[in-house]
Design goal:
The structure holds 2 protein chains of 2 kinds. By secondary structure, chain A is an alpha+beta fold. Chain A is built from 10 helices and 6 strands. A 4-stranded antiparallel sheet of chain A has the order 4-5-1-6. In chain A, α1 crosses α7. Chain A is elongated and about 80 Å long. The relative contact order of chain A is 0.15. Chain B is α+β, with helices and mostly antiparallel strands. In chain B, α19 packs across α20. The longest helix of chain B is centred in the last third of the chain and has 54 residues. Classes of the chains: A alpha+beta, B alpha+beta. At the A-B interface, α5, β6, α6, α8 and α9 of A face α10, α15, β17, α19 and α20 of B. β6 of chain A pairs antiparallel with β17 of chain B, so a sheet runs across the interface.
Chain lengths: 308, 639
């Protein structure tokens, strides 16, 4: 069985359309990022408290919100109704995110849990331990440190990849690959911003995996280009790039499809904790496949013509 | 059988056998019934098996992950002799800047004390003369302190009884504690965080206390901050005022005690003895109006605790307390009272103590929790019985003998548990501490007292708790995803590449088994992101095969024979596969380097998944193809 028969698509001719399409999507994402004042960061980076609890029945977020307007934390009353409250996976689970406060005293997470447990006595499991799904508390210092680490991680990953590709191929290939990666990350980040999804630590892991995956795709095509340059010295550069993409197209499609299905299954069945991670991967697989054809390869071609 | 292939078969067989051996404990453990586990545990064999199986991360089995940070400023200030304001100022500046990422306490301390022209030798002359010498000695001291903290925490957790706890140092200032399947997170948190500093303080006389209250009142009256405090206060207490009024007018136990002077008593009585804060009273005696008379102590309604603490922390008040060598401390728990309309109010006790403890917990030789027997006034309540060593016994007998009829406060981590009257000299050193919510709390306090006080306080700076039900959900959903993904991918490969596809599927299963056995061998922890990585690995493993198969198809189309096409396909594909996967390996290594718990789990699985998928795609499937083409009559390849 073959999905892709021998093709001869002039990908390089569509270069301009590709650039415009990518540019528009990236600009939309950037606009959203600008509008929201940067990506929406999770408590991993911003510090704060996040509580998830499980009720026995479906709960209305507004009821929860109203009940949280007077939470007693060691004698002082706080209004948490304006904090981020939403469903956690299922309609019967609720997560509450509390931003870190200047003067934090007492155990806020426990106070919120106790408050919710007592506020809806009809809808809670008998055992308090079944009520608590998760508690996460990150001090502002830890969050700030993590942000620094993540930036270092992304820079060092990109740097190492740049070096590796420069050694194995040529510098212009490395530039093409890095441009494709930046493209993938920007688009995924933009989509997350538009959809109002949080950037948490697992999402950063997803980003780095997208980097790895997108490169994987790009390098398979580069590899073909490298091989064809050696064997077909008479053909001009654009033709070689075009036929290299066409020759590896079948593999690109098959791999992208299987990987896409695999992460889609994770997205559908993996559960709430991993839901957004899988979503980032799904976006990454599509964008990564696209960018290796329409971003990485054309940039190599452009750089090559400039060299001459 | 072809001779050339024999070494390949042998290698594959050895690896398969090894994988089965490595995975066997995990599989048999999974199948084991709880009773079997219990018998093995009793025989002491369970630990051996557990060390050979794939560990589940806290996000899968539920549990608690806590990062504690040692309070270095307090440690250093405790080591200093001739402490004064300028050292305190410098330390405060350091503390403020410690929140910057990658801040190192000692570097900051060195640079800021230089800025402030603080001569460290003044405070730390026993550690050396030059700043460098002192700092390096202080570093040693802090290392020593954190090692002792580690040991004490280990001890506490062991006695608490949690299965496979992990306690490890991170950097120079932090300790990571992981407790699996913990049922009561609040209890565990208290157990880890409590300094367990037990102190015995004499309680100041009532008259001195009253005098002190008046003096604090006077300070506040002339203080500009008062306006802020007052504003905050009225905002906080207004809604509760009414309730309390009802409460007190109904509750006969709350009477104005002789602790308050006559004037206060009068005004208080005329105000119905009652309100927590009366605005008129507040102007004249801002501090004492926050307090109530409670038995023979000062009471602080829960809603006023915050303000009282804030007032006590004012520099002027601190100065006053210091000059009279006294301090205030709250009781560890509040007493609940119910008024006629069923409203509950909690009242803490406030004690006025001598500044220096008479005796500290270092003298404790043993501590046991117990239920107080019948016949005593606290029958049925949980207590902790403390034994002292000979030195402690001697001191305790001297202190109690010299202070008959005075009250002595038993203070644990700055909270007063009780303040009984000394009726007679206690020669034995045995002491009973009461004031616990339940037996569990008494048990935990006994544990921390036995394990000893931490040399320096610790703070929780990060905490992640996964409840058992969420963990179970994650396992269920993760496993289901793996199985569904596996089935769909295998069906696709079978349809698309036929027999070659089934070879790829064989390699895929092989791949999964090998990754899991490496995890078991490395005693790595499988986390939820790890399961995600396992699924991604499937994609990678399939990809390597797809690259090879597409290449073989190309070669076949060029008219090559099956055997030549396979050889050419593999040879050409190898560089592509290696180049393409090395970049993902780079990403995985970077993730491993900077990641914490779950992310590390993801990186580990991703790394091994890629490494193994390259091996299976290049080595194992090729061997199968080679043995197929060796059969002479093979003309057509099913691909």
């Amino acid at each position: 069985m073959r999905i892709i028969k021998d093709t001869n698509i002039d990908f390089m001719k569509q270069m301009r359309i590709g650039f415009i399409l990518s540019g528009v999507i990236i600009l939309l994402g950037l606009a959203s990022l600008l509008l929201h004042g940067g990506p929406k960061l999770s408590i991993d980076f911003e510090g704060g408290t996040m509580v998830a609890v499980h009720f026995t029945e479906e709960m209305d977020v507004n009821d929860i919100r109203n009940s949280l307007n007077n939470v007693n934390v060691e004698g002082r009353t706080y209004d948490y109704s304006k904090q981020e409250i939403k469903h956690f996976g299922t309609p019967s689970s609720i997560s509450v995110r509390l931003s870190s406060q200047e003067e934090e005293h007492g155990n806020i997470a426990q106070a919120v849990i106790d408050h919710l447990y007592n506020a809806f006595p009809e809808n809670v499991p008998e055992d308090t331990q079944d009520f608590i799904l998760s508690i996460e508390k990150v001090g502002p210092k830890v969050g700030a440190e993590l942000s620094g680490k993540v930036i270092m991680a992304i820079i060092s990953a990109l740097g190492l990849i740049l070096i590796y590709i420069s050694i194995r191929f040529e510098f212009k290939f490395a530039l093409g690959a890095i441009a494709a990666l930046a493209h993938d990350i920007l688009i995924t980040l933009g989509i997350f911003s538009i959809l109002g999804l949080e950037i948490s630590l697992p999402i950063i892991a997803a980003f780095l995996t997208i980097v790895g995956y997108s490169l994987n795709d790009t390098i398979v095509i580069f590899d073909r280009i490298r091989e064809n340059i050696k064997t077909r010295r008479r053909d001009d550069y654009l033709t070689i790039i075009n036929s290299s993409i066409n020759e590896s197209l079948s593999r690109t499609i098959v791999t992208s499809l299987t990987t896409f299905f695999v992460v889609m299954i994770l997205w559908l069945f993996g559960g709430e904790v991993i839901h957004n991670f899988a979503f980032a991967m799904m976006v990454g697989v599509i964008v990564g496949t696209y960018s290796s054809i329409y971003v990485a390869s054309p940039i190599v071609a452009l750089l090559h013509t400039k060299q001459k | 059988m072809n001779k050339k292939l024999t070494p390949r078969y042998i290698i594959i067989a050895i690896i398969l056998a090894w994988a089965a051996y490595a995975l066997w404990p995990s599989i048999s453990f999974q199948q084991m019934s709880e009773e079997k586990k219990e018998t093995l545990r009793e025989a002491g064999k369970l630990k051996v098996i557990e060390s050979k199986i794939i560990k589940q991360g806290l996000d899968l089995k539920g549990g608690m992950y806590i990062v504690l940070e040692v309070d270095l400023p307090i440690l250093i200030s405790g080591l200093a002799i001739n402490k004064d304001k300028s050292l305190e100022n410098t330390l405060n500046k350091v503390t403020d800047r410690l929140n910057e990422p990658d801040a190192d306490f000692f570097n900051l301390f060195t640079s800021i004390s230089k800025e402030d022209n603080l001569r460290l030798a003044r405070y730390f002359h026993e550690y050396g003369a030059s700043t460098e010498e002192i700092i390096s000695k202080l570093r040693d001291e802090s290392d020593d302190a954190i090692n002792r903290v580690l040991e004490i925490l280990q001890n506490r957790v062991d006695q608490f009884g949690v299965a496979e706890p992990t306690i490890q140092k991170q950097g120079s200032q932090r300790i990571i504690v992981e407790l699996a399947g913990i049922q009561d997170s609040e209890r565990a948190r208290d157990l880890l965080q409590s300094t367990a500093l037990l102190e015995f303080y004499l309680v100041k006389d009532a008259e001195i206390t009253q005098d002190m209250l008046t003096r604090v009142d006077n300070i506040l009256k002339g203080n500009e901050d008062l306006a802020d405090v007052a504003a905050e206060l009225s905002e906080q207490t207004e809604p509760q005022e009414e309730k309390v009024e009802q409460l007190v007018s109904d509750d006969k136990t709350i009477t104005v005690s002789e602790l308050f002077g006559d004037t206060v008593q009068e005004s208080a009585v005329s105000e119905d003895t009652s309100v927590v804060v009366d605005q008129r009273l507040f102007v004249n005696s801002p501090f004492s109006s926050l307090l109530r008379d409670f038995d023979r102590d000062l009471g602080v309604p829960e809603s006023n605790v915050y303000t009282v603490n804030k007032i006590l922390a004012l520099p002027e008040v601190e100065q006053l307390l210091e000059s009279t060598s006294s301090k205030f401390a709250l009781s560890n728990k509040a007493q609940e009272l119910t008024d006629a309309s069923g409203n509950q109010i909690k009242i803490y006790r406030l004690y006025h103590l001598e500044n220096e403890p008479e005796l500290t917990g270092g003298v404790i030789s043993d501590a046991k929790e117990n239920i107080s027997g019948t016949g005593s006034d606290i029958a049925g309540q949980p207590v902790v019985l403390v034994e002292m060593n000979s030195d402690g016994t001697k001191q305790w007998s001297r202190i109690t003998g010299a202070n008959i009829n005075r009250r002595i406060a038993i203070v644990l981590d700055n909270k007063v548990h009780m303040a009984p009257n000394i009726i007679e000299k206690i020669p034995s050193g045995g002491t009973r501490i009461q004031g616990f919510a339940d037996l569990n709390e008494a048990k935990d306090i006994a544990i921390v007292l036995r394990a000893g006080a931490l040399p320096v306080p610790v703070q929780i700076i990060e905490e992640r708790i996964v409840g058992p039900s969420l963990g179970a959900d994650s396992i269920r959903q993760g496993t289901r995803s793996v199985i569904i993904a596996l089935i769909i991918v295998m069906i696709f490969m079978l349809i698309y590449y036929k027999i070659a596809g089934s070879i790829a599927n064989f390699a895929l299963i092989w791949n999964m088994i090998l990754v899991l056995s490496i995890l078991a061998l490395l005693q790595a922890t499988l986390t939820l992101p790890g399961i995600a990585a396992l699924i991604l690995t499937m994609g990678m493993s399939i990809d390597a095969n797809v690259i090879v198969f597409e290449r073989i198809r190309e070669e076949l189309r060029k008219g090559k024979t099956a055997r030549a096409a396979i050889d050419a396909g593999y040879n050409r594909a190898i560089t592509t596969i290696v180049d393409a996967n090395v970049t993902t390996v780079i990403a995985a290594l970077v993730l491993y380097q900077f990641g914490t718990g779950p992310i590390k789990g993801f990186a580990t699985v991703l790394f091994w998944g890629i490494a193994i998928s390259m091996f299976t795609a290049i080595f194992v499937t090729r061997t199968i193809f080679m043995s197929m083409t060796n059969r002479k009559n093979l003309q057509k390849l099913s691909i």
